[in-house]
Amino acid sequence: MATKATLLSLFSSRERGRGDGELYSAIAASSGSSGRLASATPRRLNSFQVRDILSRAQAFVSKWDPNSSAYAKITSLWYESRQEAKEYVRSVIELQAAMLFLASSNPSSPDLIRAQSLMQTAMKRLEKEFYQILAANRDYLDPESVSGRSSTSTLEFEDDMNLDDEIREVGKSIGDVERVSALAMADLASIAECMIATGYGKECVKVYMIVRKSIIDEGLYRLGVERLSSSRMKKMDWGIMEMKIKGWIHAVKIAVKTLFYGERILCDHVFATSQHIREACFASITKEGAQLLFGFPEAVARGKKSPEKMFKMLDLYDAIAELWPDIESTFSCESSSAVRAQAVSALTKLGEAVRSMLADFEAAMQKDSAKTPVPRGGLHPLTRYVMNFLSLLADYRDILADIVAGWPMKKSLPVEISDRIDDNPISGRFAWLILVLLCKLDSKVSLYRDVAVSYLFLTNNLNYIIGKVQSSNLRFILGDMWLQLHTEKLRQYAISYVQTAWSKVAEALTEFPEEPDAESGREAFRRFSASFEEAYQSQTASIVTDDRLRESLKLSIARMVVPAYRSFHGRFSGLLMEEEGQSVV
């Protein structure tokens, strides 16, 4: 004979003793107090009302008992008649009210045993219907369809009888897929609410989790998300890894904005009456897949590092940082904190990897020990490599600003530079790296025997550096004052080159007696020709890598030599013509 304690144990034991995890604790906490249905729980009943409730429940339950007929076994109640399905749910809620009344007023009543048997049969039916709706509407409950809805757009209604009317009203402004999706979600919510309120939440959630987790796992698989061992990651060719990183960046956007968000919306609708259950259920379904997803960038960050890999690390960092508001809102509940922690950990590890590679990049510049001068004073390979690298890196200036914030530089910039850039970590970091490059180039000047070529070497390389800054986002990082400072330095290098390369030519045109004669004129012309030929042979062997710089240097040389030559020509050409009877060019 059932007692009150036995009955109450029935309602709670289904939630206890079979996995005391967070999810089932949430179910136990929600059972019997499920929002709107709670209004149908314990009320004063008389024996006539109890028998009437049992009779109605008997009729519904028997009709749809899979063991009673082949028709009931293969037919879906909700597919056959949604109106009758609502009445079925209402009869179950009334049956629960009768059971609670009998347990408190007449625990030895045979009607209590009968009611208990009917309830168990009804729950099996509802569990089956719940699964059928989930399975049959799999395509309409896919994350892409569901994610278009809002978690706060649950259909509100005071009575189940008005649900069809409300959905029809909504259906006027939505498509067929959305309409079917809305109906399925409403039906699932109705069954879930009933099963939770009657103490069978665990069975309901178990079915939901099996179906929905398979959808999440399949979705991630289709997106190319896979479990990679650390040993496989270490052995993987970087070219293949780059392809996987590109695929992951595409996958994470869809996974966060559609797959996980859509599941969150569905959980919020189906288990709308219990915040604890919907949060714990969502966490259980998505936790494994989400942690696998966000574990990939962390694994990449732990791999072998080199400056060339930095850009892919930054791409990964950018993808997560851009999605962080969506990650934070979708996985906002406490039960999903592990997913948020995994995403934060990925950002942290990627940031550490980028800082490490920046330090290695600087160290590589410092260690460059090439002792062979670049032929003809041309562009040093280190200059080209460093500036191409930095100009690409400048495209990530916003992300880098976040990564290097709080990462102090080992040395301070010279005042002449620090006073000419913005006071922020990213400007200082780039200015420092270029300063390291310039210092390294200065150290290579001693490799040239010809002083003029050494100045041309500095001119070519600084001109390239300035050009790269002007033509990339480095301009916005370093600013106009930095450019002005280094443009002036470039001008000084160019002047030094012209003076050291062509000053002897100009001097040869000014070294003659106060009262020159034809012989001194011929000697002056010989000196000029010799010095010009020497300078010409030397400098035509050099190279100017930039067209505009080349024209500028030509103009400077002309300004130095041509006026002196004109003066010399005017002074001596007449004397030579008188003596030799010929023109002098």
UniProtKB/TrEMBL annotation:
Domain of life, per lineage: Eukaryota
Transmembrane feature ranges: none
Similarity comment text for this entry: Belongs to the EXO70 family.
Keyword set includes Protein transport: yes
UniProtKB keywords: Exocytosis, Protein transport, Transport
Exocyst complex subunit Exo70 C-terminal domain mapped to chain residues: 247-576
Protein's job: Component of the exocyst complex.
A GO biological process held by the record: exocytosis
SUPFAM superfamilies xref list: Cullin repeat-like
GO MF annotations, alphabetized: phosphatidylinositol-4,5-bisphosphate binding
One Pfam assignment: Exo70_C
Organism: Nymphaea colorata
Identification of the protein by name: Exocyst subunit Exo70 family protein
Cellular component aspect of the GO annotation: exocyst
